[in-house]
Design goal:
The complex is a heterodimer. By secondary structure, chain A is an alpha+beta fold. Chain A has nine helices and seven strands. Classes of the chains: A alpha+beta, B alpha/beta.
């Protein structure tokens, strides 16, 4: 942190405005004030006690100072309570909103399924295309809701990590079966290379599944026709390393430092009209970090990207 | 013909699932809340129950618990079909005896039918 950032961080007034709190609700202001009052009180008590030696004076000063400190303490607690309440509401809101949103989204999804099942023969080519487009857009909304829910759980520390024994090579092989259709549609070849024997690891299965889904999804989506996606798995001491390499559109150099940020989408992505929420990599990195692992990538625009992560076996 | 009871309070979903399953060759019965759902289970003893968790009058967990506690209905397989996704909810439903837990928004109807077929085998 440079000096400017440090000053901003320490400036209580900036902190208070950031959280939309008045000064008297803002713990960042109240704490330093409490400290200041304590120091002033001690100095004044000393100066007064030199002049007036009656014990009543000193007692009065102590009572006055204590009253001020208790009042400030109360305001600090109230300030924190408000922040905690707002935080709690945010968790509940995301949780309720996602559930409520999922209901009509499911309704649309299943109604389209019904139309496709019942009317395929009587629909024109155009009408079928229209329904497919509605279904795709609906699925995008569902994906966004799922991502927001995962994101909110990760941020609130409520993403429950349940370590279990996982055979990564088996998990990947199963996942690749899911992706064969998508890969075929975009004419992309996916291959899995196991460089060494892969020992079973103890990690959270759902989290790891999300990470792999996300990386493979990205690799396929950002690879043009006739592309190749290579997945490499190897064990390195007490770590397992997984690499997902594609020869797709790559990430422009100036966007690379922002690629893990929330909602960030690289500008060359719009050229290829791919939809995405911009949350995938942020969520992926958070899960790897929480699994005590590391994540990184190499990329060159026009040549492709290799995303890798390393996680401890236990 | 196998009978499937779908316990769900959302009209759109009742319609979509009901008609879809009928076309797939099942006899479909719908219940709008937990209480009438349980009553129907006891009355018609369906081959399978599709159960939502958030329901008026009695929620899905209570329905599941009571269904499994009654020896006459305990063997009826239950597929939980809900938009709740918390791991506590999943654990609770599976420990109460649900065969499968599906998050509605993540499955299309063909996949749901596949699960039904696998369960009924």
């Amino acid at each position: 942190m440079n000096t400017k950032q440090l000053c901003h961080h320490l400036n209580p007034f900036a902190q208070c405005t950031k959280y939309h709190l008045t000064l008297w609700q803002c713990p960042s202001f109240l704490f330093p004030l409490t400290g200041l009052v304590t120091i002033t009180a001690m100095i004044s008590t000393y100066l007064i006690a030199i002049k007036y030696t009656q014990p009543e004076i000193v007692a009065l000063i102590v009572i006055a100072v204590t009253t001020i400190l208790i009042t400030l303490g109360y305001l600090v607690i109230r300030g924190f309570e408000q922040l905690a309440q707002a935080n709690q509401m945010k968790t509940e809101f995301v949780s309720i909103a996602s559930h409520q949103l999922r209901t009509p989204l499911t309704g649309i999804k299943w109604m389209i399924d019904l139309v496709m099942q019942q009317q395929t023969k009587s629909l024109t080519e155009d009408q079928l295309e229209t329904f497919k487009s509605i279904r795709e857009n609906n699925q995008r909304m569902i994906n966004l809701v799922n991502d927001l829910l995962d994101l909110s759980r990760l941020e609130q520390g409520r993403f429950v990590f349940k370590p279990e024994t996982i055979y990564l090579d088996k998990l990947l092989k199963e996942l690749l079966k899911e992706y064969t259709q998508l890969a075929k549609a975009s004419n992309t070849k996916i291959s899995l290379e196991l460089e060494t024997d892969i020992p079973p690891i103890t990690q959270d299965k759902r989290g790891l599944g999300l990470v792999l889904h996300n990386l493979i999804d990205n690799a396929i989506r950002y690879t043009k026709e006739q592309g190749q996606v290579k997945i490499k798995l190897l064990s390195k001491g007490n770590l397992i390393r997984c690499e997902v390499k594609d020869n797709g559109v790559g990430i422009p150099a100036e966007d690379q430092k922002k690629i893990f940020q929330k909602f960030f989408r690289s500008r060359n992505v719009l050229k290829y009209q791919t939809e995405g929420t911009g949350l995938g990599l942020f969520i992926t990195k958070s899960i790897i970090k929480a699994s005590k692992g590391k994540m990184g990538f190499w990329s060159k625009e026009g040549q492709g990207s290799t995303f890798w992560f390393e996680i401890p076996i236990k | 013909m196998k009978t499937i009871l779908f316990i769900e309070d959302e009209p759109t979903l009742q319609k979509a699932v009901g008609r879809f399953l009928e076309k797939e060759g099942y006899d479909v019965k719908i219940a709008l809340d937990g209480e009438s759902g349980l009553a129907m289970i006891n009355k018609i003893k369906p081959s399978l129950v599709l159960l939502d968790l958030i329901l008026p009058k009695k929620d899905g967990f209570e329905v599941l618990a009571e269904l499994k506690q009654n020896p006459e209905t305990a063997n009826i397989p239950v597929i939980v079909l809900t938009n709740l996704e918390g791991s506590d909810d999943v654990e609770k439903a599976l420990s109460l005896g649900a065969t499968t837990y599906l998050v509605k928004a993540n499955y299309d109807l063909n996949e749901v039918v596949q699960r039904i077929r696998e369960t009924l085998k």
